[in-house]
Amino acid sequence: MQAQELAQEAWRQLRRATADKRHAFRFVALASHARDTLQNRMVVMRSFSASGEVNIYTDKRTQKVSAIQEHGEVALLWWDPKRKLQVRFQALAKLLPGEEALEHVPQQRQAQKDYTTQLAPGTAVSQPEAVTWTEELHFAVISCMPFHADILQLGKPHKRVKGARKGDKWVWQWVVP
Asked: In 3D, which of 82, 62, 74, 104 has the Cα closest to residue 20?
């Protein structure tokens, strides 16, 4: 097996996760930092391109958006217990510009509701029922372009590859698990 083959399998699973709502890779841990504070949270991966670009939808008033605007480097982590496959990315994140982001707005009204709360996510409320919604859409798309990848396949034997983006291509190397 070539190092690139393990990477190709990981890419296949990441692409599949955007179409299969039950795939373990649909949910990804996104880590960011701002003002000397690290933050980690689970988000839904909305798209994955052949180059490795990951798109995530969010409310533009969240702390992750502020962190990305302050310091664009993020880390992404996926784990699939069935396949015993872990994928880690270091990536540069940015917000898609207004018109480009609006092309991604969910068509179902109920899905849009997540991005229309009157108060910003993380704002204290007296009780969950105190959350109210408006007509204003606070939708944003975070685009993450990886520059390093680390893929671990547990098994007999364990296999691990690291990759680095060189221009528009990836260079893969076996490493000790």
From this structure: 82
DSSP code for 25: G
Burial of 50 (0-12, 13-18, 19+ CB in 10 A): exposed
Closest CA to 17 of 57, 48, 63: 48
Percent of the chain residues topping a pLDDT of 90: 86
Domains of the chain in sequence order: 3-107+139-174 (2.30.110.10)
Cα–Cα distance, 112 to 132 (Å, whole number):
14
> Taking a C-beta distance cutoff of 8 angstroms, is the pair 168, 51 a contact?
yes
Share of residues in the chain with pLDDT > 70 (%):
100
Instruction: Note if the pTM is more than 0.85.
Output: yes
For the chain, what's the residue count? 177
How many CB atoms are located within 10 Å of the residue 1 CB? 10
C-alpha 127, offset from chain centre = 29
**Could you count the other beta carbons within 10 Å of the beta carbon of residue 79?**
16
Burial code (b: 16+ CB inside 10 Å, e: under 16) for 11-46 equals bebbbebbeeeebbbbebebbbbeeeeeeeeebebe
Listed in sequence order, the DSSP H helices in the chain are 3-17, 63-70, 98-102, 109-112
